Amino acid sequence: MKLGLEGRHALVCASSRGLGRACALSLAGEGVSLTLVARGREALEATAQDIRRATGVEVHAVVADITTPEGREAALAVHPAPDILVTNAGGPKPGDFRDWDREAWIEALDANMLAPIALIRATVDGMIERRFGRIINVTSAAVRSPIDILGLSNGARSGLTGFVAGLARKTVAHNVTINNLLPGPFETDRLRETARQWAQDHGVPEDEVLARRRAANPAGRFGEPHEFGDACAYLCSAQAGFITGQNLLLDGGSYPGTF
Predict the structure, then answer these.
(1) CB-based burial of residue 201 (10 Å sphere; 0-12 exposed, 13-18 middle, 19+ buried)?
(2) How far apart are CA 113 and CA 107, in angstroms?
């Protein structure tokens, strides 16, 4: 299926590795030029070069912290009017809510709620004027199935989800859709890092931790990043103009609910 995205431009946040990188790769494969943003220069430039070689599209790499006003300004300076926006940022630290002060909450809200809203505010009116726009927020399966030690993430990402639910019904008449992708366990560096830390804390081999987690998933495996990237690309497609305000859960069937 051709997704009708040739010649479009996308701003993809936290795209040097993991799921952000996967989204960028899938979009580039459809002929979308890119602005990639991440904090680590080496990984970001390597990803940009890999995508250029693989697809031939134009790729701009911006080293910046997208959770800050200065970072967002730098990202949008390269291409102020993207057709596609993929918001993404690392999740806040886990822990017990009794240990989180106001500063911890504000940091979580800045990264996982307020930064995406600021990027939407900066780009959505241009999309409306051009009568095409696709906004994808990478959130978390924890929005649907909250995890007790991830209270900062649960709260901040749920706030973004509520905001999107209202706005998405206002923009769709202009062919501007806003949707959220909720990843469960995917084969990423972050998943392996958390497994490694758990293994060290509990004296269990890392391979055993990963094997247990795979077996616990109904799919019997972790998701592959390209599966996530392709889901993102489809939601950005010309064919997806009737999908808005939705939360697409990609978790291999872990969520047990009917709705």
Answers:
(1) exposed
(2) 10
User: What is the b/e burial string over 26-65, where b = at least 16 CB atoms within 10 angstroms of the residue's CB?
Assistant: bbbbbbbbbbbbbeeeebbbebbeebeeebebebbbbbbb
At residue 93, does pLDDT exceed 90?
no
Least confident among 54-68, 81-95, 163-177, 217-231: 81-95
Q: How far is CA 85 from the centre of its chain?
A: 10
* CA atoms of 220 and 64, how far apart (whole Å): 37
Site of tokens 């992708």? 181
pLDDT at 199: 86
Average pLDDT over residues 1-9: 96
Share of the chain above pLDDT 70, in %: 100
- In the chain, which residue ranges form alpha helices assigned H by DSSP? 18-28, 41-55, 69-78, 102-109, 115-130, 151-171, 189-202, 206-216, 225-235
Residue with tokens 């997208």: 66
Angle of the 18-28 helix axis to the 225-235 helix axis, nearest 10: 50
State the CB neighbour count (10 A cutoff) for residue 143: 19
State residue 57 phi and psi, 5-degree precision. Answer: -80, 160
Angstrom distance (rounded) from CA 215 to CA 211: 6
Can you tell me which residue has the tokens 């391979």?
207
